[in-house]
Amino acid sequence: MITQQNVQLKPVSRGNYLMRNVLRHNMVFSEGSKGDAAYILTEGRIEISKNFEDRKKVFAILKPISIFGEMALFLDDGVRTATAIALEDSKVIVVTRDDLDEFMRESPKVIASIITVLVARLKSTTRKAMKAPSVGLGVVRILDLFSTCGKFELKYGATVKALAETFVSTPERIEQYIHGLADQGLLAVGRDENDVRIIRIRERDMLAAVMQKQE
């Protein structure tokens, strides 16, 4: 349950900036909301997360001193791409666009620090994005590994669950990929002699078959 935040003005650097007390489990901002300020964490811990296919993915646990939500200062009419929640009672300084204008006029060192944070975060995000697997291709690669090892029948439920957990996806999304492969004739979904639902892999070299169909 989100309750009203306690806020007060406190002197920060040269001016009076809003110091916000965020109680444990309360949101600083939510994914999809309009971003009009950045925050500097001075006390406590903040969790940064995002919903990915109906599941929460935690990107970072921030400790003082940390800047977050800073892209709102540089993007016009931007929306929040993540949710920030206090893991414990915390204090943050609210930095608005007007504050940024003042910083730019009077505190170039502060701007340099913000840019350094942005660059580091961009590099980290890029590395993670490059490592993030395509879920569809990942499913094919794992099924291909089974077929290469001579395993052509897999229990449907257990396979879907394992693939969903591996790729931080939903079972429904994994089932879409499996049935898509079945529509291509690369595998079949049926039942064994014990009436257990199974996946039958028809292609020994499934990866090559999928890549060939994409050409």
UniProtKB/TrEMBL annotation:
PROSITE patterns tied to this protein: CNMP_BINDING_2 (PS00889), CNMP_BINDING_3 (PS50042)
Identify the InterPro entries for this entry: cNMP-bd_CS, cNMP-bd_dom, cNMP-bd_dom_sf, Env_Response_Regulators, RmlC-like_jellyroll
Q: Which SMART domains match?
A: cNMP
Which superkingdom? Bacteria
Cyclic nucleotide-binding domain boundaries: 26-121
For this entry, the protein name equals: Cyclic nucleotide-binding domain-containing protein
* Organism in which the protein naturally occurs: Pseudodesulfovibrio methanolicus
